[in-house]
Amino acid sequence: MGRPSSKSPIVCRCNNVDQHRIETAIVRGCRDLNRIFDATTAGVGACGGSCRIYIARMLESYLKNQTFPTVARPQLPKKSR
After folding, report:
1. pLDDT tens digit string along 34-54?
2. I need a surface site. Which of 23, 43, 61, 66 has the fewest CB within 10 A?
């Protein structure tokens, strides 16, 4: 599993998969959620797939418009120390 880009938001927190990695898988031919899960490990973490709704939105947007949402998943606020 590759390291996420510091500029790309994390979509799958369990497996630390960023938005860019998922977008790349979709552009390269993953046209359903199971193929995206297999190619990236996103959506199959210990939480049971809470990110799947965001991945589905990304896929739907790409299939309809050939574009992706700017930010697929709202980011958690950073904890103050």
Report:
1. 999 999 999 998 998 999 999
2. 66
Helical packing angle, 52-65 and 19-27, nearest 10°: 40
Contact 30, 36 (CB under 8 A): yes
Instruction: State the Cα angle at 67 between 9 and 6, rounded to 5°.
Output: 20
- Indicate if the pLDDT at residue 5 is higher than 60: no
> What is the 8-class DSSP label of residue 10?
E
Model pTM?
Answer: 0.83
Joined together, the tokens standing for residue 66 give 């050939």
